[in-house]
Amino acid sequence: MDVQQVFENNKEWVQSKLDIDPKYFEELAKGQQPPILYIGCSDSRVSAEQLMGLGPGQVFVHRNIANMVPNADLNVMSVLNYAVAHLKVDHVVVCGHYYCGGVKAAMQSADLGILNPWLRNIRDVYRTHQDELDKIADEDSRYKRLIELNVQEQCINVAKTPEVQAAKKDRAIKVHGWVFDIGTGKLIDLNIDIDAVTDKFSDIYKID
Asked: Which is catalytic among the residues 62, 97, 155, 176?
């Protein structure tokens, strides 16, 4: 790939926007009020705005390996704080995808160096749901189910944060768990009932 082509593509994209609205970028520069925070995977096949049919200014995006929300990761916690407490988003989406390399790596007994601490979070998800996962004989089905359960656990991690707990009281913020099926291009809503899950939280997680 010739990276210079990226700049040619950019020129064409800019012109296509201006052809529709001459003030498009002028308006875009005034600020952002996206209703959605999207936490997804860094996988090059998964483009947040494209798969949702949205454009610039409509979604605040954070991506990392395997769409994780570890409470000790300053990056994702800063994004979450800014989006929820300052941008006042109404929806937080955690979106995983089938055939996720990060989840696949976490299922292997291999030393992956610097990735080990990160993948341990996914392995903890497996341990938490080991009874269910070990009953799935087909490896591909078990792989997909772990992807779904990882999304669920990251949604729970989102719901545990003080910012989201406060926003739930203030404006009924919603937390959603989705999976993108790369093989079909379809978004799947896992219909995770976060309210039911958080109602079971020990008081130690709750922030008044």
From this structure: 97
- pLDDT tens by residue, 112-147: 999 999 999 999 999 999 999 999 999 999 999 999
How is the beta sheet containing 174-181 ordered, strand by strand?
A: 59-64, 36-41, 91-97, 174-181, 186-189
Q: Within a domain: residue 175?
A: yes
Same domain, 161 and 58: yes
Q: Is 19 a catalytic residue?
A: no
Distances, alpha carbon 182 to alpha carbons 46, 99, 190, in Å: 8, 8, 16
Tracing tokens 């950019």 back to the chain, one arrives at: 10
- The pair of three-digit structure tokens given for residue 170, joined into one six-digit string: 């203030």
Domain that holds residue 171: 31-196
State the pLDDT confidence band at 202, using cuts at 50, 70 and 90.
Answer: low
Chain centroid, CA 47 distance in Å: 11
Q: Does residue 86 carry a catalytic annotation? A: no
Q: Is 97 an active-site residue?
A: yes
Question: How many other CB atoms sit within 10 Å of the CB of residue 14?
Answer: 12
State residue 39 phi and psi, 5-degree precision. Answer: -110, 110
95 counts as catalytic: no
**Active-site residue (options: 62, 95, 100, 176):** 100
Q: What is the pLDDT of residues 44-56, one digit of tens each?
A: 998 999 999 999 9
Annotation marks residue 91 as catalytic: no
97 and 13 together in one domain? no
